[in-house]
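hey
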């Protein structure tokens, strides 16, 4: 080996993925590459050739540009480029701009393909890198999409505020001077209330109230609000649910930053989904609700092809389910009288996680106070029967496991529910673990939120010991990803001999189960999978790369699952036929399953070493 090759090999062996490969891989790379000195003068000849290459930066710095000239990433020592076209066979679209000249190692396609065949980790490294590149570019391209925008990006102006002792006439003058239709009432930078131009008409002029009276006399106290980092979709849903047109926007310290109005949101021209939610909340009867519910499948299709963040599809469907449930509860109370005592209608599973699909079924229940009487239980039994039956009529299937408020076992007092959870935690049988996977994803829908908050506070205090977490980890590892020998996909067949992969059972469910376990261990009481992962970044249970890997895998599998639900109706629910995928998509799918399998093994090592 020449000194030059030895020096190159010494550098290469320190770079990923060669640092995790046998020495023969870095030796092959070092002996089959060519070295170029990349400058501003010769930069245009690279990434323009009909030949495809893998490039490894040894020195210098370079900007990788999109076809439109936007910077994709800054490349420096140890960075690769050129691999997307090597993986996909597609024409080169990106450009290169030299910031600082330097040395670049170049490997041709045949040698790149040899390393892919010989070393699985080599291939996985670049498939994953390409997936991350696509994801990053995807978010940059869609940052102006309405669903990605933060509330602070949509607000038309900053906060216009007055103190509660200011006069009503002062509010009218201030609103006129600033050209706004509402005022935030605050004191010591804390939100107290809201006054709108409608309030001036209805509460002042119509009632001939003294215009010199204080604002506190007419303001809406403790108004609904949103935080600056919330998304537009959340604000739209909140406005329609409560029939309000002005939402104060607060920062994380609850200091008012501005007002979001329905006019601000209408400018986004994306109101179809939330218009349907609004119509559901206003529906006058069951027949009208069923008619509105029949619009959901077509709405989902049009929404799915325009929204870029797949997680919003689940939030949309869960929002529609929430709206249908809340409206049915209201209709029941109109027909049979108000609820005789406090109650909380709660949901479990995918609805609680806000990850529903068109194939999701009902998982719901009723939380009642400990003092509930038998007569009151009868009222709620009838409510449960009515709501669950009408939800099924609206297209949300009944739960095959009967986890519904129409089932007496799912209508319990706080003490009864806590006792059930306690049994599952302290006697973690396989059946108990199945229940934990369903019921530990829970969320309030309608009724008395204080009752639900009290319940979840007590639930959080139930001690979960090592045996419980070991049982959960063991249960998670009874499921397996569909990877066989040499990382080949293991397919199933239906009765018509169609080959398929069950993305839900063999992928998404495993991620949900893993994330739930880590969230419970870290005492994170969120239900949504991506929100749980985001919160886990602040714990020491998972490192950042593991969190990001699980996020990417969840998004990728969810996107494939949604696409096939919309386009390939001949397959079983939640399934895909790998024959419908491109070569790169298959590589990404295998990589996702491989990462999930690694996460399962790590979970077993952490929690269930003595139990497997």
């Amino acid at each position: 080996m020449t000194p030059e090759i030895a020096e190159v090999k010494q550098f290469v062996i320190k770079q990923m993925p060669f640092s995790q490969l046998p020495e023969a891989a870095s030796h092959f790379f070092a002996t089959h590459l060519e070295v170029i000195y990349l400058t501003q003068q010769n930069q245009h000849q690279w990434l323009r050739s009909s030949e495809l290459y893998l490039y490894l930066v040894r020195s210098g710095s370079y900007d990788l540009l999109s076809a439109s000239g936007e910077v994709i990433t800054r490349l420096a020592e140890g960075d690769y480029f050129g691999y997307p076209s090597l993986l996909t066979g597609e024409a080169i679209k990106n450009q290169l701009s030299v910031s600082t000249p330097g040395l670049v190692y170049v490997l041709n396609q045949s040698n790149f393909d040899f390393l892919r065949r010989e070393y699985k980790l080599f291939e996985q490294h670049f498939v994953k890198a390409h997936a991350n590149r696509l994801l990053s570019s995807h978010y940059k391209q869609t940052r102006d999409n309405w669903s990605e925008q933060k509330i602070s990006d949509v607000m038309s102006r900053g906060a216009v505020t007055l103190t509660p002792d200011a006069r009503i006439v002062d509010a009218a003058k201030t609103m006129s001077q600033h050209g706004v239709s509402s005022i935030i009432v605050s004191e010591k930078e804390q939100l107290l209330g809201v006054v709108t131009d409608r309030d001036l008409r209805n509460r002042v002029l119509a009632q001939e109230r003294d215009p010199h009276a204080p604002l506190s006399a007419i303001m809406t106290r403790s108004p609904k609000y949103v935080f600056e980092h919330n998304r537009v979709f959340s604000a739209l849903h909140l406005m329609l649910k409560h029939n309000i047109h002005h939402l104060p926007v607060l920062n994380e310290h609850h200091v008012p930053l501005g007002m979001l109005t329905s006019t601000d949101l209408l400018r986004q021209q994306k109101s179809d989904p939330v218009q349907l939610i609004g119509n559901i909340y206003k529906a006058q009867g069951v027949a009208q609700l069923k008619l509105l519910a029949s619009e959901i499948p077509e709405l989902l299709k049009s929404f799915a092809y325009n929204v870029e963040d797949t997680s919003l599809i689940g939030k949309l469907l869960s929002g529609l389910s929430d709206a249908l449930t809340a409206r049915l509860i209201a209709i029941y109370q109109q027909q049979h009288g108000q609820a005789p005592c406090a109650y909380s209608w709660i949901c479990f599973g995918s609805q609680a996680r806000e990850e529903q699909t068109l194939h999701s079924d009902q998982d719901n229940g009723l939380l009642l106070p400990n003092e509930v009487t038998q007569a009151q239980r009868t009222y709620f039994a009838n409510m449960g029967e009515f709501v669950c039956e009408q939800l099924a009529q609206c297209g949300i299937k009944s739960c095959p496991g009967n986890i519904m408020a129409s089932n007496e076992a799912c209508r319990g007092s706080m003490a009864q529910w806590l006792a059930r959870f306690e049994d599952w935690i302290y006697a973690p049988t396989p059946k108990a673990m199945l229940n934990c996977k369903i019921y530990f994803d829970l969320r309030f829908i309608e009724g008395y939120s204080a009752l639900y908050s009290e319940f979840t506070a007590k639930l959080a205090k139930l001690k979960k010991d090592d045996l419980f977490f070991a049982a959960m980890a063991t249960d998670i590892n009874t499921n397996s990803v569909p990877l066989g020998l040499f990382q080949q996909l293991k397919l199933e067949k239906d009765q018509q001999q169609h080959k398929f992969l069950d993305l839900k059972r063999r992928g998404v469910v495993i991620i949900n189960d893993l994330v739930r376990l880590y969230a419970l261990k870290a005492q994170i009481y969120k239900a949504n999978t991506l929100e749980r992962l985001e919160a886990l970044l602040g714990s020491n249970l998972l490192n950042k790369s593991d969190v990001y890997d699980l996020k990417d895998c969840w998004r990728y599998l969810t996107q494939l699952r949604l696409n096939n639900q919309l386009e390939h109706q001949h397959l079983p629910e939640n399934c895909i036929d790998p024959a419908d995928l491109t070569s790169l998509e298959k590589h990404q799918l295998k990589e996702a399953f491989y990462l999930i399998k690694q996460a399962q093994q790590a979970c077993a090592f952490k929690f269930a070493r003595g139990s497997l």
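Residues 311-336 form the longest helix (26 residues). The domain at 148-268 is CATH 3.10.580.10 (CBS-domain).
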